[in-house]
Amino acid sequence: MNEHVVNSVRVNGLNVQAALETIAAIKADKSLARFEFRARNRWIDGGENRSTIKDFYGAGREDCSRMSAFEFTNGEPPVLLGNNEGANPVEFLLHALAGCVTTTFILHAMARGITVRELRTELEGDIDLQGLLGLDDAVSPGYEQIRIRMHVKADCPEKDLDDLLAYTQQHSPVCNTVCRPVPVIIERAMD
């Protein structure tokens, strides 16, 4: 990190000293970098289901910082047989991607000493329902393409922003997961 960052207390709302300490701890003990995030989901009715997220393992231990779970209702619009109970799962994927790309961008801007004054992100994804419905085996049931447009105002040259955007795409965990094949195992639990 450059001298500007080390001498700053907070950049883009992030505590620089805490970031430096975290990086040093992980360099000293790589096992601290291993995390396991968890989500639980329960079907309600029709296309409505609810996910809860609370516990996770990270930094060498079970986390106990969350007193209550976060709840997210998945639903569908009427055209997809739902009642708008909540955003649908492919919309939540866009939300997760937007959040992760934004956080990754801000984190690495801080590390480079770049002050971000404004950041807005727009995402669009194209999907053909023939794949989901099994009407055409040649059509993927997932997104065909996702476009991310980031509107950034920052105190740095345009080239630095372009470099930071490319770095963000390579290092965002959600973007990386979406952009490469990741094994997903679905199995029936024996209750």
List the SSEs and their pairings:
Blueprint: H1 3-7, E1 10-11, E2 14-15, H2 16-28, E3 36-37, E4 40-45, E5 48-53, E6 56-58, E7 61-62, E8 70-74, H3 89-111, E9 116-127, H4 129-132, E10 143-154, H5 158-171, H6 173-179
Antiparallel strand pairs: 1-2, 3-6, 4-5, 5-8, 6-7, 9-10
Helix pairs in contact: 3-5, 3-6
How would you describe this structure to a colleague?
By secondary structure, the chain is of the alpha+beta class. It has 6 helices and 10 strands, in the order αββαββββββαβαβαα. It has helices at residues 3-7, 16-28, 89-111, 129-132, 158-171, 173-179, and strands at 10-11, 14-15, 36-37, 40-45, 48-53, 56-58, 61-62, 70-74, 116-127, 143-154. The strands form 4 sheets. Strands 3-6-7 form a 3-stranded antiparallel β-sheet, with no helix packed on it. Strands 4-5-8 form a 3-stranded antiparallel β-sheet, with no helix packed on it. It has a two-stranded antiparallel sheet with strand order 1-2. Helix 3 packs across helix 5 and helix 3 (89-111) crosses helix 6. The model is unreliable at 1-6 (pLDDT under 50).
Report the strand count.
10
Give the overall form.
globular
Return the string of H and E elements.
HEEHEEEEEEHEHEHH
Sheet having the most strands: 3 strands, antiparallel
If you average the pLDDT, what whole number results? 93
The termini sit apart by: 51 Å
Radius of gyration: 20 Å
Helix content: 25-40%
Structural class: alpha+beta
Strand content: 25-35%
Q: Give me the side-by-side strand order of the main sheet.
A: 3-6-7
Uncertain regions: pLDDT < 50 for 5+ in a row?
1-6
Q: Number of helix segments?
A: 6
